[in-house]
Structures are given as structure tokens and as C-alpha cells.
């Protein structure tokens, strides 16, 4: 249930009987030939699909995250770590004020990890609220399914190429790109990252059959739903 | 053209011949019986409709803004002023780094005014980039059209009730609510605001014929488009 | 009653029977041929004149505000938005700690608007204190009086030329300057603003008869006094 | 020469031949029976008197400083250290932008010491500008003159009781208050400080003959003027 | 080579021929019966042992990190995320200013992960400096050695019990503690964490033979040294 | 008693009967031919020696402080004032949370003075905790002993040359360096400071007999111990 599809009375009614909420965390950043919003699209859709049968409200995705290494790829936007943790704190403070007590952060981008640190810091100030931080794509079951299909999988590869992240008219390369060296990447500035990455894919095929993609999705939705269901402490 | 419907190469190609970008500013806050995302929906859609024939990219809307007075209405989320201006600065810094030089902020929520202050501060640090801050709903021509139709118009009234902000199954009251006293409202804390506002509408009818609404929309799209076209200095 | 003309015991005595305070917000910035302190002088004097018969204490004016667009005019000083809202929060926190519960911010400079946003944010944290933000010069009655006298009135024009803001020995031009284009101004960096503005006046005559000025002052004092008197919620 | 008595062109003219500026740092805080603005009045007046024959501009005093220990004395206002150093940095940045290269901070309140730390930090970022931090009241010659007259001198005692800081109608006690124990004071919270201090004086007589006061003033003006004159490196 | 065992001239001489530096990141937090400084001791000693034959300087360990979940265990100290990233930025800025261009952060505490995010953000601002973030204890080869010895290993278990982290006179339990449920732990406030953890160990034996410990150490020193040696891009 | 030599249970036991703690504040900065860690080594050792017979725990020294003027001397690291006061606040918050109520900051570096300002600000927020700020080296009795031995004593001179701060193999000059002009130094940027200071010593001999040094140490330990013993209010 999207907060965007609710009015305040409906949220108030909901809070009479439940106190869970979901906040998806995305990013606006290069994903090779895929949408610049891959991480926002996926985290928000996983959250919505997982929450749907449970009737838990999903707040609007945070479309901007932490992605400084991609700043030489046009269209990528990165917040500062300090800005991001402040934003997280402000949002959690508001949700608590209104009665939410169990909050799931569905994260779609590895670079957003400081949100997890902030969540734990915030719980030390607000021990009556539980906040879970969930990297949907590398949670155990989902990641196992990805590995089962094809272990050469990475940022901007087939693994993020879903019917809802690909762009009409963009033809993906057919070959399997060799994995980049992640350790080297981590010590490069943005221009060097771009020169090294080329098209943006970190390694692996650019697309795989939809049946495989949907099977991953299905595992991820269930795995995320299980976290919503609990336990919460 | 949504950034979400582009990949980085398409943005790079665009930057060969143009340097404009649009960033919509929304809010997640009570709008009476309408969607909690009214301000996000409207600012993003105005931006997209205005930009469409010009081919200017529209970045994802900032879904969270400054709305502390509504914090007693469940589902409303407010960032701190400091957080908001930091977020704006970070985003503008990234856009500049990639070559954007003319940026239109299409704002959908009056409370976000400090973004305008930040934009001007930021231009003092970055005098080679022009940033326009545009309150789409009270720009001269759009506001004149609203007044022409019905001068009793306000937050969460008919004036924000478009086919894309109303919720299925929600019946709006038929009467015309008297205008609240805005001066009194401005010195109240959130709980007092809620007690005083009741359903959230600041005054006026709750809905009006779609033909009227679309005529407002059409003026607003044109007025916003004119700002994109320029002049820019 | 100036706080500068009181000692702490006198403030303590005052707080036995009242809980109002006034804080004027000024700016140090170019005002054409007028004093660089126009906004500080006017906001503090309006506050003092309005408060005088009521015996409400007026704290020292905040002499520095937000005015990045004027930074190419020597003598202009601008704080960052973040600094300014922090300063406002600190001061409000102290006033509350000592028992003030109704605080009027008498603002003399349009660029200081984020102080209004902070005041509302602060009331969400401190709902037991009412803070009014008052732009003395464009409040309804005062602005009507200005328009009545001469609708071509603006920053650094006759409208700010009072006996207490003009400088000895400075001769003002006699002609009526055409209004500058405010929309163009808002997308310029400081150097472009200066080149465009020339002497600093935004438009209108540079001076008008004192009788007219004093009639504006008189309306403004009364209008401000009415806000001090209330209602406060 | 007060900046408040100048317009921007006069400052620009000044900058053709000199690049010095003075910024007084005050505080709004209890001073026993004296004005709550003692530190602002004194630092601004010393600055003006010292600068006068040299024609160096004096910016408006920062009326609010760091004085958390006095928060239980009504009328005292304290900024946070972080706010204060940000404010100092913003102001120094502006002065540099306009061409000032030698800046004297005339400080009137011991609690403002972090401004000195900030000034040194800021010079590490801006090595082409010299910033002197001057505690006018305990500079060597001035302090020697105070000690010569009466070594029992302290905050809110006779030593701050000048014709321009005393309040009409307030009778000062005649006796010599014993010095408080400063070490004890420094580990007390505001309420304990107030209980311990009583009337606010730290020790010493409450007033002394004007001839003595003016002799101190005269030394302080000269000592401050010497710092303006240089050397500056 | 400890910076503490050098003077500035020796550092200057070093910088004539090399530009590498090492900064260990520790934490002051409960480690069961072991020293509260386990993470500081280990990260600093690994750094020193790895750097020794290479002659690379090791700066003093950052003794305080991010550990909010342990705040109910006396002696644990946690900085805020914002503080921590500011501290990291300040230090990196200084090292760059003096000529260091390749900096290894040897991290001893998982909670310090935002330092890695900051390092990448900082490299986007300073692309001429390479910063590696190294979790010494779960780097591939070291972690493999731990797993080989005993896969039940965790915070405050045998895996952190080295001759240099154990305390004289403290007897460790002999049994193997079952692993705690890390997922549950992550949504608990500090008091709940303490109640759940009991003695602080997350699972596993409390000590193992020194020969095993030294073999882990030896692998970790070599693995860390390899990172110092490079490649660095 | 070093916190590093304790585990959390030992701290908990301690807090049953006492609530004092000590935090040494150091700096990593040039000290002529002496260790770059002089201020950290001395503040931590004084704290430990003073606390030892009393059994009061000493937290790990803050190895990085405020020293922007020395940034042109390699190996010197300076935090920003804002970072430093945030760090202090975070640490004090944690100590309070765990039951400490009397905290002694043993400072080894004059530049760290804003920590004293923060301590007082923090006590205004936390009036139930007493925080003493102690500059061990210029406290009355210690400074008197230094002056008695040799009044020409300063930063990086003999006065900081203890058996535990000198470096093996470094030969100190034999002559007495004339005192530098501290007033000039304070308005210089880092490069000018370095050029002016030469070897880093501010004036005086580079070493004196150990018997003298140990007599200073002995006074300083006793003077510091007396502060731990109290009174505390």
C-alpha cells in the first residue's frame, strides 16, 4: 500500500491496529544501459510487492543516495554521508512521532550502508522503536538464487535487468563481460572509475531470460515479506 | 523526459547540446482526503509535462520537504531546514559537476521556501550556473487562473484536486469550507494545527469540475515551460 | 524597552507578569546610498517603537542575515542558511528556558525568510511557545500605505529612506529609477547582480518627503504593535 | 567609522587604499545591576574609539556570544559553540571576498574564546588574510591599569561599570564583594551558578570614580589602536 | 613506524621518497572479559606489524568509533555517524596537505563502516589521493584462517583473544557459547542488546591456544602488508 | 587505571561506588625534535599517574586535537573546531549514560581550548554532571615550578622534553633559543608559521637535567590528583 495512494485518515486508521512502515532507499546513478533509477525502482517495487498482501504502508522511495564513485557518469547524483544520515534521522523521528514502532528500510543500493549505521544509532536514542535495514538483493535467499542462475552477476549486469528497469529501444550487448576488480575500483576517483568501467557494468551478461529474473524477484519478495512479518526483536 | 527513463549515455548525449535540467520538489504531507503525495505528484507532473516537448531531463522528485506544522497528521514527514538545504546543495553540486548550467527547481510546496534561499546562496558560490526556483501553483498566470475560477482556494481544497491526486473511493464533502485564519495557524504547534484544521483543508470547495482543473493545468504547464525556455539571466 | 537598557533582575521582574519578547532581524548589506545597516536599523526601531507603550523587552537586533546576492557590494555580509537557522534555534531555546512563551520576530529583510521556516520547525519541537514571524515592511497595512504613496517602491529606494537610515552628506539622485527585473536578478550570481543593479536601488525615486515617510512609519508601528498585543494562537 | 554610517560605495572607496576591518564581539548576558549588553557595548565602543582617527571601518557588533553558565539569569542568551564558529567563518569569508585582508576581532567576553580558535583555523584555509583576536579588557596594558587601581576586579564589578554600561535609576551596592571561587563556578550548571553568584558580580566593588574608569578606557583605546596599526604579520 | 616515535623532520624526510600512510581505526567498547580497547589494540598492532619492514608511518589509532548498540555496557563510548565522518574528513585533508597520496585505513571494528563511505566520498573530492579501507579481521585470507581453526567465532570470542587483548587475572569461561542471533540483535536498543548478550560474547569459545592465535595474526599481518605494498589503483 | 586494561564488568563494578572518570586530550603535532605525540603522551601519563592511587579509570587519550597553525609541519593533524566539539559532546553523552557524574578532562594542548567551552555548554544541558577542564602544564603549581627552574620555557622546548617524549638518536641543540613573538605567530598562516619557527621550538633550551623534569612531573601529578579528589562543585 503506497502512502501516495492514501490520505492521512487512512494512515491514522491503519495505526489503530498496526505500527509497521516500510521505507525504500534508492539511488540515482549509472546502471549501464539500464535506467538511472534502477535502485529506486527495484527497492520501491520489492517493498510494495512484499507489503501488498499484508497491508503495510510503503513511504515514497528516497531517490537519492550515496554514490560518489559514479559522479563522472552523467545523471548520477550523490548526497554527502552527513546529509544522508540527517535525512534518515529526520524521517525516523517523524514516523515515531506518529506512532510507527517497527520500520523496515528496504535498501536497493550498497552505497547506502551508512543508513544502517544511522538506524542503529537512532535506536540507541529511541529504544522503543525497531528499525530493520534490509539489502534486498544480497539477502541470503535472494543472493543464493542469483548465484544458482549465474554466479557472474554484478552492478548493472543482467542481475539488475528486470522488465521494469530496462529502457525501450536500448540494445544490450550479448557477451559476458569479465568481472572488474572491485578492490582496484574502491581506490579510484570518479574519473578513473569511469575510465575503468567503460559501459558501467561490473561484470557478467547484460540480460538473461525473464523467467529467471522473475524467479529471483519472487524469492526476493518472499524474503522481504518475511522480514515485515517478523519477529521484530 | 524522466531521468528514470534514461541511462547515463543518453544524459551524456543530451549534454553535448544542452545544459538544462529540472528538479521537482515535493512533500509528503496531509492534503485532506487527497493523496499524501499531492505536492510530489503535482510538481513532478508539471515538470514532465512542461519539459516534454523541449526534451529537457527531469530528475526524480524530492518526495520529502519541510512541513513541520502537519506532523500531527499521520503520514506527514518533515525534514529539518538544515537537512533540506544540505540536500539541495549536494544535488546542485553533482549537477554542476556533470555539466548542467541552467537548473529549474519546480516546487510544489510552500514550506520548501528555504530551497530558494539555498539556491541563491549556492549561486554565490557557483556564479556560472543559473538556478531558478519556481512555485508552479502561485506563479502569476496560474494563480490568476485559479482566482478567476474561484478565489476561495487553498491547501487541500479543490485547487489541488486533480484527476492525478484524488484517491479512488474517497468521497469529498460537498460544501465550501470557510477559509481558516492563516495568521493564527502560523503560531500553532502541530497538535493545535490539527485540532484547528479538522480535515486538513484550509478553505474552499473540495472539488470542482475537471474542465476547470485541466484549464489550470494547461496554464501552469505553459507558464512552467516558458521558464525552461528562458531567458536564463 | 531595550534589553540593553535592562539588567537581569529587571527581566526577571518582567517575567513575573508577562512572557512576551521581541527579536528584530536585520542585515548588513548594500542599500544604495543609504546605510549598510538599513534593515537592522528599521527592524530594531520598529520593534522598539511598537513595544514601547506595552513595556515588552526588545532583544538586540541580529545584525547579520542572509544576503548572498549582494556579496559583490562591499560591506555586505551574508551568513549561510544553515548558520542562520542554527542561530535562531539557539536563541529561541534560551528565551524559552527563561520563561518567554510568546516571541515576535520583527524581520527587516526579505532574504531572512528561512528564519520563518525555522520558527515553525522549532514550534513543532516546542509547542508550548508561540513564535510569530513578521515582515514589518510588507505586512498588509504598511504595504498598502506604501503603495498608496507611490507604487514604484523597492529595495534601497525612497521606501527605505527614513531620517534614521540616510547618511549625512550623501546626495540622492533626483530621478525615478525604472524597476529592475526581479526574475532576472534571482538567477544571477553576485557579480552579475552588481553589474545589473548599478547603484543598488531596485527601482523608484530615491527619496520622498518626510511627511510621507513618517506616515508609513506610523502605520507600521501600529501594525507591529497589534501583533504584539495578540491574539497569540 | 561605523559600517552602519557608511554606504557600499564608501566602503568600496575605502578598499582602494586600505584593507583593514574591525569586528567587535559581544554577548547578551547578566552583568549584575549593569546592562545585559555590557560586553557588546564595550567591545563596540572600544573598537570605534580606537578606529576613529585611523578611519578603519567597524562592522556591527555580534551581540550574541557564548555564555551557557549564565542561562539561569533572565535575559542572557547563549549560542552553541558550533553555531558561533560557523557564524565567524561566514563573516570572515564575506570580508575576504570583498578585499579585506587584515581583520581585528575586538572581543568583549571571555566565553567567546572559540572565535579565536576559529580565526586560526580559518587562516589555515586563507593564509592571505591576517585575523587578530583581541580581548580588549585583559590585554597587557589595560589589565595592568585595572590591577593598579584595584586588584579585586571581575565580571560585573566596577571594572565593567562605565558611564555607558550603567543603567539610570539602578543603585549599586557600596560594599566590596569577596571574590567568588572561579574554579568551583566552572563545574556548576546554570542554576547552581546563579545560586552561588547571587547578584551576578564575581567580586570587588560595584563602582569606582569615573576618573579611574576613564583612565582605563584611555589605555584600552590606545592599546587596541596599536593593534590596528600593526604590525600584521 | 609509529608517528609517535617520529618527529616532524623525520616525517618530512620520509615524504621525499614515499607518500603512503596508515591510520588504524579502533573502538572503545565491551569485548566480554577482554579489554575494552580490543579493536584499538588490534588495529594498531596489525598496522604496525604490517608496516614495520616497509618503513611506512602509522598514525595514532582513532580510539573511539561507532558502537551505539553497546552503550549499556559500561566503558563503551560511541561517536555519532556525523561526528565520525567529519573526523575522518579532517584527518584525510591534513594528510593530503602534507603530501600523503596513498592512505590505508586499517579498521578493527565493523561498526566503523561509514568511514569507508566517507573515504570514497572524499576521493571524489580528492581524486589524486587513494584511500583503502581494510577490515583486517574479515579480509579473505585472515577470515579463511579463522574459519579453518573454528567456524564458531565472533565478537568477543576466542577470535579476539590475543596475548595483547586479554587482561591479567580475568578467567574466561571454558564452554563454547552458542552463536547469538545477529538479525535479532540488529533491531534491539542498547538495553535489550545487553540483556540478550549477557557477557558480551556473540558466540564461540572464549579462548583457544596461542599457537592458533599467532597463526591468524601472521596471516593478517601479511594480508595487511600486501595492501600497503599495492597496487594502489 | 586505564580503561584499556579493564573490561566492562570491571567498569560496572567501579560505578557501584564511584562516578569519576578521566579523559586525556592530546594532539598530534610538531614538537621540534621531540615526538609528534608529545601532547598525547603527557596528558595521558599525567592522568594515569594522578589517577593510579585513587583507582579512577582513565579513558583512551584523544590523540587528535586543534592545531591548524602547525599544518605545514609534516605529521601534524588538526581537526576542525566543529568536529572537535561534536566529538567531546558525543563522548560526554556516553559517559553520562553509563553513570559517570564527575569527569576530569586532562588537556595537554593549548589549542584544544574549545573543549572547555563545550564542557560548559554541555553542563548547561546536563547540570547533574560536573566536568572539569584542566590544562595540566599551566596549572598554577606546575607552572610556578617551571618558572622557578627556567622562565624561558615554551612549546617544544625543554619544558616538554621528558624521558617519555624524547626520541632515541635525536640530538637536541645545546643553545637557548630566543622566544618567538607569539603575537606575530598568531596572525600567520601555516606556511608562515613554519618559516618563522624554523625547528618548531618557541623558545628556550631544548633539554634540561632529568632531575628538574621529574620535579615538574611530580608537582603536576599531585596538582592533577588534587583536582580528581575534589571538591567537585
UniProtKB/TrEMBL annotation, chains A, B, C, D, E, F:
One of its GO terms (molecular function) is hydrolase activity, acting on carbon-nitrogen (but not peptide) bonds, in linear amides. SUPFAM superfamilies: Creatininase. Its cofactor is Zn(2+). Pfam families: Creatininase. The keyword Transferase does not apply. GO terms for biological process: riboflavin biosynthetic process. Keywords: Hydrolase, Metal-binding, Zinc. It comes from the Bacteria. InterPro entries: Creatininase-like_sf (IPR024087), Creatininase/forma_Hydrolase (IPR003785). Belongs to the creatininase superfamily. This is Creatininase family protein.
